[in-house]
Amino acid sequence: MALIVQKYGGTSVGSIERIQNVAERVIETYKQGKEVVVVVSAMGKSTDQLIQMANDISEQPSKRELDMLVSTGEQVSMSLLAMALQQKGYESVSLTGWQAGIKTESVHGNARILDIDSRRINGHLATGKIVIVAGFQGITENEEIATLGRGGSDTTAVAIAASLNADKCEIYTDVTGVFTTDPRVVKDARKLEAISYDEMLELANLGAGVLHPRSVEFAKNYNVTLEVRSSIEKESGTRIEEEVAMEGNLMVRGIAFEDNVTKVTVYGLPDEMSTLSKLFTTLSDNQINVDIIIQNTNGNQTTDISFSVDSDILQYTMDVLSKFKSELRYEHIAYEEGLSKVSIVGSGMISNPGVAAKMFDVLAEGQIKVKMVSTSEIKVSTIVDSGEMISAIECLHEAFELDARQAVTV
Amino acid sequence: MALIVQKYGGTSVGSIERIQNVAERVIETYKQGKEVVVVVSAMGKSTDQLIQMANDISEQPSKRELDMLVSTGEQVSMSLLAMALQQKGYESVSLTGWQAGIKTESVHGNARILDIDSRRINGHLATGKIVIVAGFQGITENEEIATLGRGGSDTTAVAIAASLNADKCEIYTDVTGVFTTDPRVVKDARKLEAISYDEMLELANLGAGVLHPRSVEFAKNYNVTLEVRSSIEKESGTRIEEEVAMEGNLMVRGIAFEDNVTKVTVYGLPDEMSTLSKLFTTLSDNQINVDIIIQNTNGNQTTDISFSVDSDILQYTMDVLSKFKSELRYEHIAYEEGLSKVSIVGSGMISNPGVAAKMFDVLAEGQIKVKMVSTSEIKVSTIVDSGEMISAIECLHEAFELDARQAVTV
Q1: What is the DSSP letter of A100?
Q2: Do B86 and A65 touch (CB under 8 A)?
Q3: How many CB atoms lie within 10 A of CB A285?
Q4: Which of B298, B199, B194 is nearest to B240 (CA)?
Q5: Domains of chain A and CATH, by start
Q6: Rounded distance, CA B16 to CA B392, Å?
Q7: What is the per-residue pLDDT for B408?
Q8: Do B68 and A82 touch (CB under 8 A)?
Q9: C or N: which end of chain A has fewer Cβ atoms within 10 Å?
Q10: What is the DSSP letter of B221?
Q11: Where does the record place the ACT domain (chains A, B) (predicted)?
């Protein structure tokens, strides 16, 4: 019998009506003769409300107690969904993380799943029940409740699918799938039928927020077929799987972007072996995430290094650099705000060295100035002025034939 | 080192401010050099809100899933209290029912505690932590979450106190203790310094809603000293303990009462051995709780039986009796609404046969007609017209010297 794991996010279970709707979706699958395990997040904004209460009580609530607090959110939504299924005549049982055998590291707030003892889930499936599992939570060796951090419910679903050897893990969300680029920005954006794990990983890391990178990585490692689809619309979504079934000649699969980027340049650093390491260790020790990094040696005894950061942490970044000026021995700093990152992603570009060149060509033709570049095997990222971001996306979307008008079988 | 178990009800932890206040109370005790275990209920009306959601989803939510749902309420309040204590600089840890080792029957919604494996609580106490435990919940043999039903948090506190051999179990509530009668009704009502388990049991069963009878019974069986006191006022409350320390000559300890009583009389039943049993088995099989029962044989082949019920179930009671008229073989039924029950309670009356006589005498002098009587070893209950209830309580309160003016050392 086919086994499907379905995951519904907070918006999908955000109200009594939404929960009833999810129950209907679950029943549809069950009536096709499939075994169904459902993973749910907390209802709508309920996690935020719980965290607000914690912040009202304590300046820095302990992570252990925060886990105790927020893990109640999924317990509420899962029991309500079980009741909804029962009310519609379907046997169902809800399980907390610890009841479902989800073992995690002994870390609070951001634990990783170590193992799943799926005996209890299997026992309920064997009696024909629909099993509902709390996302986002597990239990440590010391029987402490631990939460998985951001994207945790997706990861729970994938881990359960891997442990049960499920045929598919369906991630229900408020969009109908993964698009070539954000359809709110480019009207011709096209929903992809399928995408590889690596491509999805790059897109997820580049800010296409449909799936958390962690869950995609997990799915890749355990070869779990994912499907991203809408909890409201009935149309099929986007499969994420190994690329066997895909067309090799589709060089670029999608375009990701994010704005609110600032470029910081540190001028006149000593041109020594340890300079790069010293600078980025200092930033990392102070919890500053940098994205693209460029180094220019200028032929003298000094070097200039540029990097991009989220504009929200610009002031803090400048403060940290000033504080460590004597250790780092630089001459001065400059920064440029109001930038955006535009990236093309596609596993086809590994064997097509001309893809990056084509990207720069397209942007040049569109009169769009590239301020920084970064490449990986399956993506090329550029930093451009925010005012030119949408124009850049549109040019690239058309040039790489991603438009809905040019249907490509994938 | 002395060990104190404290229990705070839903009103006491009903808001962030209230939780901060509870933290202060807990710290006061801890600073006296005592080990403290705190049992908490869910915040204010949160349990009712969860049940409302369940009822919105399902006509008859499964008890198993209801337990999953409502047990989150205590988990929220306990983790917030732990955070409040930590914020004030005191090490603290919260434990769910299953983490605290509270083993219950395999029943949902109304489980009894079977055993407490207190190793985890003891481990935390040994490191100097204040331990907070979710009231009202435990875990069954099959690792299912089970709730304890009404008064469950009181019972949790008493059971933990028994299992840890605590020096005292303090029940914090919105009144300052147990009174000779309801101070809202009789202005001279006096707070009792101490009362015996049996007296408290009778008062609790008679509607003095400070403590659930189940928790008093549990305390009696395990000889746990209880203290009922206010979570706001600092004054000491009422101790509930074995009666060694009490004055034997205080015949009557308090007066309990409830209105909304109806007397039902079934006329012309066959005067047979099985009549009583048949009638009350029929009522009990239909979940009708009767209180006082009186049988009059009239010398013929028939007998009349009267009983009292809560007025809210009068119509249902009449329906059930009509439905079984042919089996029960009675002639007709009559009922009298608008009645109240007034009871005197005191373990001193066991050795004072004249107490009941004095009660009837006092009521007769006050021109109050007694419609039904029921006695036990330590209480006498009378049914009177609701219009005369307060006057009855006042006469008795004065006659048995319960007034605050007449200070009695107990």
Answers
A1: T
A2: yes
A3: 10
A4: B194
A5: 3-174 (3.40.1160.10), 255-399 (3.30.2130.10)
A6: 43
A7: 42
A8: yes
A9: N
A10: H
A11: 264-347
User: Residue type for B43, please?
Assistant: M
Short-list B372, B359, B371, B370, CA closest to B398: B359
What size, in residues, is chain B?
Answer: 410
- What would the pLDDT profile of A303-322 be if each residue is shown by its tens digit? 889 999 999 999 999 999 99
pLDDT digits (tens, 9 = 90+) for B113-169: 999 999 999 999 999 999 999 999 999 999 999 999 777 899 999 999 999 999 999
- Biggest CA–CA distance in chain A, Å, is 78
Q: How far apart are CA B47 and CA B72, in angstroms?
A: 9
The stretches of B88-190 forming alpha helices (DSSP H) are 119-126, 152-164
Most A CBs within 10 A among B57, B58, B129, hence the mutation to make, goes to: B57
Nearest C-alpha of chain A: how many angstroms from B82? Answer: 7
CB B255 within 8 Å of CB B403: no
8 Å CB contact of B64 and A93 = yes
Contact A211, A154 (CB under 8 A): yes
Cα–Cα distance measured from residue A1 to residue A296, given in angstroms and rounded to the nearest whole number: 60
Rounded Cα–Cα distance for residues A408 and A397 (Å): 13
* Per-residue pLDDT reduced to its tens digit, A37-89: 999 999 999 999 999 999 999 999 999 999 999 999 999 999 999 999 999 99
Chain A residues whose beta carbon lies within 8 Å of the beta carbon of residue B146: none
Cα A381 to Cα A345: distance, rounded to the nearest angstrom: 9
Report the amino acid identity of residue A394.
E
Query: What tokens appear for B6 in the block?
Result: 């404290």
Burial class (CB in 10 A: 0-12, 13-18, 19+), B300: exposed
- CB neighbour list of residue B319: distance below 8 Å, 6 or more residues apart: none
- Given CB atoms, is A59 within the 8 Å cutoff of chain B? yes
The pLDDT value recorded for residue B409 is 38
**CB within 8 Å: B80 and A69:** yes
Report how far residue A294's alpha carbon sits from residue A56's, in angstroms, rounded to the nearest whole number: 43
Residue B53 contacts A where some CB pair is shorter than 8 Å: yes
